[in-house]
Amino acid sequence: MNNNNGFPESFMWGGATAANQYEGAWNLDGKKASTADMMTGGTHTVPRRITITTEEGVHYPSHEAIDFYHHYKEDIRLFAEMGFRCYRMSIAWSRIFPNGDDVTPNEAGLQFYDKVFNELKKYNIEPIVTISHYEAPFALTKRFNAWASREMIDCYVRYCDAIFNRYKDVVKYWITFNEINSLIVPAGAYLAGGLLVDKNGGVFNNTSVDSTQMRFQALHHQFVASAKAVKLAYEINPDFKLGCMINYSHGYGSTCKPEDMLQALRMDQINNMMSSDVQVRGEYPDFAKRYFTEKHIHIQMADDDEEVLKQGCVDFYSFSYYKSHVVGTRPEGDETQGNVFGGYKNPYLKATDWGWQIDPVGLRYVLNHVYDRYRIPMMVVENGLGAVDVVEEDGTINDTYRIEFLRAHIEQMREAVRDGVNLIGYTAWGCIDIVSASTGEMAKRYGFIYVDKDNEGKGTLKRSKKNSFYWYKKVIESNGEDL
Ligand code: BGP
């Protein structure tokens, strides 16, 4: 039990990124395309789409991204300068198994992460590794539509076996899937599932197809894959720590009408809690069974799936937190469509330029709410403000708005720690500017470090420190006291 005065001394402060949004070098040293590499760029209004072949003239933001592949030393040095105690990153699966089902892993790919982990070690930065962050080898999508197929489970476990063995002495914290619950919403089909669901063109266009059955089946395959990976991990190194990762969308009822509150509860159960119940408790909750029946979703399970899930429970709960939403009776005159999980405008909150409603107090609520349910260590592994930054003539970037956003959220985390929540770490999302996952843009920046690159892919890739860089350094130095 902590002394409830503030962040524990061992608190892991750091930042987070994902391979396909950061590394670039999408086809170098044996790597082949991942599902993310086949996604076009988007804009504020034009959604990204997945293509079957790389098309001449189409912009694929992950192909170069911001080239961590060739800048890792410089970037890690900057992370160290901010005082990072940990760094959440992901491994690009198709760098290790370019075709997804190769007989042996790609040595050059493994060596890249050897170098990254060595560099982190030099500065005493603890890696937290996401095994699959919104990507899988594209060859597996072409072959059997990725996570729609059970065959994916063995491919994933073989990939885990290779990286667990290779990095067993340098990585302790692993996250099996980024935002595994993304598959519950249609937009998650391509990002999280690598799924092509449009029967006509084979290309998922994000709106027209009801892919519900396929998405929930794919999610089940990921649950089983995750559980098998957890079991394998402990066999390889009993000191490993394995975590789930939930895209936590916190919802309020639009009024205090009981039905509105019940709807908020229902969304919380299905969108947030169902996935973590499976990964933390090792079984589907009862409310999921009712939901599946009502929605005519039929999950096909192998005979031993339920047993496998029971044997693959994670040790920590990690989540992303950006926003909250409002559900229930539509407020009169409100035409808005709120956040990713839908919903309305919250009159008490401001929103980002991308319409994500900013709710620091909601973070305290969620931390308490989830900790009460599972009583296992928690980490906030994504949180931050996507905003347009302006580089002044003298080169400074005065991102006061970002500092305000982060300060308010860290304050609420501190309150949650005082409430008794066992929070062990915080990794600010996109600690260096990277490609946005939902829009494919560079203009939506989260970083403490600015990167010279624009939406069309032009720029020198030069890194420079924003004001928030110095602020976050101070936060870490003071262990979250000097905000
Ligand atoms: C999460 C994803 C990240 C990330 C972040 C911000 O859902 O795990 O990959 O990008 O959201 O989203 P965006 O980049 O769309 O602003």
TrEMBL record:
GO terms for cellular component: cytosol. Gene3D superfamilies: Glycosidases. GO terms for biological process: carbohydrate catabolic process. PROSITE patterns: GLYCOSYL_HYDROL_F1_2. GO terms for molecular function: beta-glucosidase activity. Keywords: Glycosidase, Hydrolase. Belongs to the glycosyl hydrolase 1 family. This is Amygdalase. It comes from Paenibacillus amylolyticus.
